[in-house]
Structure formats: structure tokens, C-alpha cells
Design a protein that fits this description.
Helix content: 25-40%
Number of domains: 1
Low-confidence stretches: none
Structural class: alpha/beta
Order of helices and strands: EHEHEEHEHEEHEHEHE
CATH architecture: 3-Layer(aba) Sandwich
Largest sheet: 7 strands, parallel
Distance between the termini: 15 Å
Radius of gyration: 17 Å
CATH topology: Rossmann fold
Mean pLDDT: 97
Strand content: 15-25%
Shape: globular
Bound molecules: 2-amino-2-deoxy-6-O-phosphono-alpha-D-glucopyranose
Amino acid sequence: MIRIIKTEDYNEMSRKAANIIAAQVISKPNCVLGLATGSTPIGTYKRLVEMYEAGDLDFSGVKTANLDEYKGLTRDNDQSYYFFMHDNLFNHVNIDPENTNIPDGTKEDAEKECAAYEELIKELGGVDLQLLGLGHNGHIGFNEPADDFPVATHCVDLQESTIEANKRFFASIDDVPRKAYTMGIGTIMNADKILILVSGEDKADIVAKAFFGPVTPQVPASVLQLHKNVTLIADAAALSKVNK
Ligand code: GLP
């Protein structure tokens, strides 16, 4: 069952998402947060930083595991997810850098890096709250539409539509990495609670398919319908194609 919170706009979505994450951190100060990148969660991270600055949130015991990372980008590349997380959250709160985890895109041996990342999540004791965005093709993390649901952290070939969607962040389309390391659908589904954020009219079609259509690996996010504790926070524009 998916609990849906409809908001007026992106800002309200971001505030409500930050409240849920804050509640998690306050109720379990040593929790494991699964974190996401993309433009959608930026407002949520901003709000979390404000809460920290106001003295209302303490990240000193929090551990994090990010969903994914481009293969081949160095950590100082401003398009790496490592850079993104530090720029948008980690550098602005009192989280211990030792407690933050992101797949290492510079590791050439994909199998080894992905297996090590999967193991690390197990060692952390699993993810308490996983934050997700939604790709236009229904991807979560970088799990692209496929014939089956990938179980564990793995290396993916990004689809043309994803490369196209992400090229806005790079100097040219040739600079967009073709591969990424991502938690699998199984890894994501193992999280205790899931919080997925969607904003904007351009996501309205995929919201209808993913949360109100059949569960299929062709729409990876549709698998969330089978999770026991999912909250979708979406603005009115993203929910405009469904009767919610
Ligand atoms: C990216 C990321 C996803 C993200 C999605 C949507 O490629 N790998 O984790 O949720 O695409 O991005 P945005 O929020 O910018 O629409």
C-alpha cells in the first residue's frame, strides 16, 4: 500500500519530505538513511540543512548509503554523485564523513565494487529510510526498464533517454557517462521504509503508470506497490493524471 501525500508545489513537497526524514533521525539518531540524487531532492536537503542550522537536527550518529553513482567519474567531478551529496548536504551538516557511503565510480572492477557495496549495506544493518526520486522512464536509482527486476547492486548501461535527460548537467552529451553502479531493486525493497518524491507535470504520465498501473520491470518503480511501507510525496502537477 502506498500512502500518498499530495502537495501544492515543489516547496511543500520538499518541506514535508524533510519532516519525515527529520522524524526518522530524531526517533533513531543512529539510523541508516538511503539517499538519492537528481534535481528532485535538492529542496529536501536544503530544508534539512536549515533544520540543522536551527539546532533542531543532529546528524552525528547518522549513517548514509547512496543509491547510485556514475561509473568512471572521479569524485572531484562536479557531476559525480559524490560531489552532489557533499555540495547539497554532507558539507553543511555535522555528519561524520566516515559514515557516508556512495558506490565508488572510479573502481574499474564493477563486479567487485558492487558486491562490496551490497555487503556494506548489510554490515550497516540495512537501510531504515530510503529516499527516492523517479526517472521519466520509471527508473529508481539507475534501475532502467528491463525484462526482470535486478536484485543486488550492479553495473548498468544507461538508456539513451536517461543519457538525454541528464545531458543538461554536462558540457556535451559525449561527456555523459554510459554506465553507472546502482543498488538493485532487491536492495531498495529491503529498506524498512521508502519515501519517494515526484514533482512536475512532466512526471504525471510515469506517476500514473508506476503507482496505478500493473507491477512490471518495464516500469521499475511499479515494484514499490509491493513494499509494506512506502510514502509518495507528489505535487499537484505530478498527480494531475490520476484521480488523487
Ligand atoms: C537520475 C538518478 C535518479 C533520479 C532520477 C530523476 O538519473 N539516478 O536517482 O531519481 O534520475 O532525476 P530528477 O530528480 O532530476 O528528475
